[in-house]
Amino acid sequence: LNQFRLLQLPHGAGLEAMRIEIRRDHLLEDSFSQVMSMKMGELRRWLRVQFVGESGIDAGGIEREWFALVSKSLLDPQTGLFLIEKDSGAFGINPSSGVA
Length: 100
Hints:
This protein is of the alpha+beta class. It has 3 helices and 4 strands; from the N terminus they run αβαβαββ. The strands form 2 sheets. It has a two-stranded parallel ribbon. Strands 3-4 form a two-stranded antiparallel sheet. Strand 1 (18-22), helix 2 (27-36) and strand 2 form a beta-alpha-beta unit. The chain is globular, with a radius of gyration of 16 Å.
């Protein structure tokens, strides 16, 4: 976590935050497409998330919710990207996912 903080530019470093607009019913698709379209330098900026059709100013709470929802969705067995090891409960990449 500390190493991650070193990569992030300080707030107010003269750069606008990167804004993404996400449809809740297309959470992973919208998130993947918008994050992957960012340039390398843009990935170091602060992130501001807006859920389409919802009012709210992202002062950190919406971003936290977005990270939690994306993480939960990525690890959901229905998504098929990861498998849960029966003995340890650890997650492993699903070789049948087409991503591995």
